[in-house]
Amino acid sequence: MNDGGIRLVVVDDHTLFRRGLVSLLEDMPEFHVVGEASDGIQALEVVAAHNPDLVLLDVNMPGMDGIETVQALRQRKIKAHILMLTISQGDADLLGAIRAGADGYLLKNTEPEDLRKALIRVAEGKGVLSPEVTAQVMRAAMQTANPAQPGLSDREMEVLRCLATGLTTHQISRDLFISENTVKTHVRHILEKMEAENRVEAVGKAMKMGLIRSQQ
Q1: In a 3-state reduction of DSSP, which class is residue 48?
Q2: Per-residue pLDDT, 95
Q3: C-alpha–C-alpha distance, residues 85 and 108, integer Å
Q4: Does domain 6-142 have CATH number 3.40.50.2300?
Q5: DSSP characters for 155-166?
Q6: Where in the chain is the domain with CATH 3.40.50.2300?
């Protein structure tokens, strides 16, 4: 942070929301928006070019999503603080963002004054969470003491069973009557929750935990 205020980059794929957010922030004397981006790839370029104090980042975006963007920023040793601002209250998005290195997680229904306070807090190196998601983080912290309970949803368990039988993304999509993109999203969430690098490792861990039976 400098005497010109907290320098921000705003990243959101919805143009109307992003422009409205930028306008709101520019009306607050504590902040100076130095750049905007509509996706993760563009965000990396804008952050590198402007070296902001803080990145305000959506989770669900096309191409490189918010979690992948956080990971990429941290891998590049970007010093900026990162605050997620999203509609998603899903465990995988919330915990994935925090594990990737986000400094806070707010929902888009946050009141402007609460957003202002949260941004200042994150810029000072402190973490923030929307009240609606605090319980989820507490639950996840309790589950770390019991790794045999990864917290998969019913649909994720269905996809995991399909993975165990060797089905492809297309075949799972067909059998469960969901889109291939939805299958990919479920698989990503399964890998995050199982702390697995790939599908094979996730299936292996699930078998050891007794979540699924061997298909042999």
Answers
A1: helix
A2: 83
A3: 6
A4: yes
A5: HHHHHHHHHHTT
A6: 6-142
pLDDT digits (tens, 9 = 90+) for 122-152: 999 888 888 887 776 666 655 554 455 567 8
The pLDDT assigned to 145 comes to 47
Residues with Cβ < 8 Å from 38, sequence gap 6 or more? 11, 12, 13, 15, 18, 61
- Tell me the pLDDT band of 80, cut-offs 50, 70 and 90: very high
The amino acid sitting at 58 is D
Sequence ranges of the chain with CATH classification 1.10.10.10: 154-209
Q: Which top CATH class is 154-209?
A: mainly alpha
Query: Mean pLDDT, the chain, as a whole number?
Result: 87
Helix or strand (DSSP H, E) at 63: none
**Residues 101, 55 contacting (CB under 8 angstroms):** no
* Residues forming a β-bridge with 36: 10
Residue 7: the pLDDT is 96
